[in-house]
Amino acid sequence: DAGVIQSPRHEVTEMGQEVTLRCKPISGHDYLFWYRQTMMRGLELLIYFNNNVPIDDSGMPEDRFSAKMPNASFSTLKIQPSEPRDSAVYFCASSLVRQGGTDTQYFGPGTRLTVL
Amino acid sequence: SQQGEEDPQALSIQEGENATMNCSYKTSINNLQWYRQNSGRGLVHLILIRSNEREKHSGRLRVTLDTSKKSSSLLITASRAADTASYFCATDPRMDSSYKLIFGSGTRLLVRP
Asked: Fewer CB within 10 Å, N- or C-terminus of chain A?
């Protein structure tokens, strides 16, 4: 298996532009997570899905952020309009939750977003 | 808010020495996991310890869990330069049908050759 795939790996955009980050989870995994990592705030969970349904989006910072999972093999995180404070590394992770609770999460390589 | 807090924030040791990192958390948990992150990369799972376990080993890694103190430690024995990375603990809080992990702030480990 290729692991979790994210694209693009790097994105540089100007303030006010729309940004779309993409993620392909590991085949067969039923949970998908979006995280944001910054030096100041560490690793923050933004939203997670179970079987393509959003379960908890309490970490989404504001209405400018939205996430979708139209099918089991694809998810997007969109920021519109983007702001310089959105600059961070965004990670996607997937997991197969087995009996007994949370299992290992497999992380993608991340998308480094820079908003000028 | 962060559930887990690692200590120390940074650690520098000589190759061959042991490295110990600690994690404290706030709420009851189902399990606790440790992850490693190399610079510029995603996190990689190292080991998971369940709330009813006290110690677990995996190769050169040893993890302990003390639920009464709400703390865990990760010991890396006979460290190598390749162990240089950031190490994060992640807890799975006991919440209704919640499967999210909450990550700590991490310990940056530098192993000097």
From this structure: N
Q: Is B26 left (phi over 0), alpha (psi -120 to 50) or beta?
A: alpha
Confidence band, pLDDT 50/70/90 cuts, at residue B95: low
Place of tokens 């949970």: A31
CA distance A25 to A29: 7
| Amino acid A11: pLDDT | 97
Does A10 contact B at CB distance below 8 Å?
Answer: no
- CA separation for the pair B43, A108 (Å, rounded): 8
CB contact set of B37 (below 8 Å; sequence gap of 6+) = B43, B44, B85, B86, B87, B88, B106
Residues B100, A56: C-beta atoms closer than 8 Å: yes
Q: How many CB pairs under 8 A join A and B?
A: 60
Instruction: Using the structure block, give the residue that is written with the tokens 């807890």.
Output: B91
Q: Could you give the dihedral angle defined by the CA atoms of residues B88, A65, A81 and B2, in that order, rounded to the nearest 10 degrees?
A: -30
**Digit-coded pLDDT (tens) for B2-20:** 456 888 999 999 999 999 9
